[in-house]
Design brief:
The complex is a heterodimer of chains A (about 300) and B (about 180). Chain A has about 300 residues and is α+β, with helices and mostly antiparallel strands. Chain A folds into 2 domains: about 100 residues, no CATH class; about 150 residues, Thrombin, subunit H (Beta Barrel). Helix content of chain A is about 35%, strand content about 25%. Chain A contains 4 helices and 12 strands. In chain A, the strands form 2 sheets. Chain A has a 6-stranded antiparallel β-barrel. In chain A, strands 6-7-8-11-10-9 form a 6-stranded antiparallel barrel. Chain A is globular. Chain B is mostly helical and about 180 residues long. Chain B has 10 helices and no strands. The model of chain B has no long low-confidence stretch (mean pLDDT about 85). Classes of the chains: A alpha+beta (about 300), B mainly alpha (about 180).
Chain lengths: ~300, ~180
């Protein structure tokens, strides 16, 4: 007692005690978030508070891209214009037959007593930034809860699927790209109508079609589209093209690599596709508040 | 045979005396560091961009020890977790560790001149850069490749710049008249 430091030298708990305390706090948070996904609500609150700072940080990039786009050459504009006109012409041809096909489809589905596929609503959005996280392939888009974005919606660009909304904040949302390591998409091979699951590999420009038997009818160049059987992705969105098929009889599955058809890395303007179907329960969020409105109403009844 | 290290401490001019930093100045530098971390840049640059918040934390814990508390550092970590879409607590953990290590080694590191400090700071940054992959390995992920450590290298190389730019506002106006 006599040898303890005088009161005026006291600095509270020692450095080591404080370090261990905050270390434990961090570990608890990591486990709560990574294993149990408890903290989505808190994440949303902090993200909303952080929004202005993020806007400030985005300003130089925004100004630079604006400044650069101002100096587009005329030839570039003309090339783009020509391309768009051609594309428009080609598409107007297909569009003219679309009305007829839709009517016919409705009639046939009525004959077979199948559920009618509802037309999809899309919302335009813009990709704001990549998340500076080397372990995940995620981007932020400039539409959030305020604009009716819900977790689980598919995100497409002009060519095909680029990802899925995984977290929604007030004015922005987080989109996990299809190339993310934890992303799996139920697909169908367009040519052979074979169903499968496509996995991201964690780096740009490559996807893997796993668990296909060695004898599966998959060829180089096959287009894979979403099959829609999970109720998350609407059916028929182009996802990837098969780039490499390796059949080794010693293994139980073929090794099939694919390349995304959409501009997963490069896209800026994207569409968030609404699904009218009831999405299945989110295994991560469970019964938390961040839920699609439709499901909550359904449960209340 | 005797191997002798160059002894820097005595050959260097004595360190200049700086005014003690105001709390608002420390807060300002941290805010700027957060904004620097959030700036969206082309992929190629953002892959090698160092963690500015980590550099600023090291600076303050070396040059005004105990001014920066664990609570502030920990909350900054949470902010960075949200901004980078990482697990909650990941940056909080690394910043806590960084503050601890740089406080423990404060006496030793500040003894060395700037060039030698680069190696010390580089080591600190490397240690905290290793925390995340080790945590991820427990969740059965691959170890990232060499490019993952480029920000560490760049951060260490930026250290002299960080020191000089942060010191500038704290310089004393000295009397220039010859004795």
């Amino acid at each position: 007692m006599e040898h303890s430091a005088p009161q005026f030298f006291k600095r509270g708990p020692t450095l080591h005690t404080r370090f261990v305390f905050f270390l434990l706090c961090s570990l608890i948070l990591i486990i709560a978030d990574a294993r149990f996904h408890y903290l989505e609500r808190m994440r949303m609150v902090v993200a909303t508070a952080l929004y202005p700072i993020q806007q400030v940080a985005d300003m130089p990039g925004w100004a630079a891209s604006r400044g650069l786009s101002f100096f587009v050459t005329q030839s570039q504009l003309r090339l783009e214009n020509d391309f768009l006109r051609q594309q428009n012409l080609a598409q107007s041809g297909t569009l003219q037959t679309l009305g007829m096909l839709e009517a016919e489809n409705r009639q046939l589905r009525g004959l077979l007593a199948l559920k009618e596929r509802l037309p999809r609503k899309t919302r335009p959005a813009q990709i704001e930034r990549n998340y500076p996280n080397p372990f995940a392939r995620r981007v932020a888009i400039d539409r959030g809860l305020q604009h009716g974005i819900r977790p689980g919606l598919a995100v497409v660009d002009g060519q095909g699927l680029i990802g899925q909304v995984t977290r929604v904040f007030h004015w922005q949302s987080e989109v996990t790209l299809i190339t993310d390591k934890e992303q799996a998409i139920p697909i169908q091979v367009q040519r052979s109508a074979l169903r499968g699951v496509l996995f991201g590999m964690g780096y740009d420009g490559a996807l893997e079609l796993r668990y296909m038997p060695v004898s599966a009818d998959v060829q180089n160049g096959d287009v894979l589209t979403t099959s829609g059987i999970d109720g998350t992705y609407p059916a028929g969105l182009p996802v990837a093209r098969v780039s490499h098929v390796e059949r080794n009889a010693a293994l139980s599955f073929a090794r099939i690599l694919c390349v995304p058809v959409a501009g997963v890395q490069g896209a800026l303007q994207v569409m968030v596709v609404e699904t009218e179907e009831k999405p299945p329960a989110d295994p991560f969020l469970g019964d938390s508040k961040i839920q699609p409105a439709g499901r909550r109403e359904g449960e209340a009844q | 045979m005797k191997f002798s290290f160059p002894v820097p401490a005595h050959t260097e001019p004595p360190p200049e005396l700086l005014r003690p930093p105001r709390g608002s100045y420390i807060a300002f530098t941290l805010l700027v560091a957060v904004v620097f971390n959030l700036v969206s840049l082309p992929d190629l640059i953002s892959q090698v961009k160092p963690d500015f918040v980590a550099l600023i934390i090291v600076y303050w814990s070396l040059h005004s020890p105990y001014r920066l508390g664990y609570i502030v550092v920990w909350l900054l970590g949470l902010v960075m977790d949200i901004a980078s879409g990482a697990w909650f607590g990941q940056h909080a953990l690394t910043y806590t560790l960084l503050l601890y290590l740089s406080t423990v080694f404060q006496r030793r590191i500040t003894m060395f001149p700037l060039i030698y400090q680069v190696f010390h700071v580089g080591t600190l940054l490397l240690v905290i850069q290793l925390v995340t992959p080790v945590l991820r390995l427990m969740g059965d992920e691959d170890f990232p490749g060499f490019p993952y450590f480029l920000p560490t290298l760049i951060g260490a190389l930026l250290w002299p710049l960080v020191i000089t730019s942060l010191r500038a506002p704290m310089r004393q106006v000295t009397d220039q008249t010859p004795a």
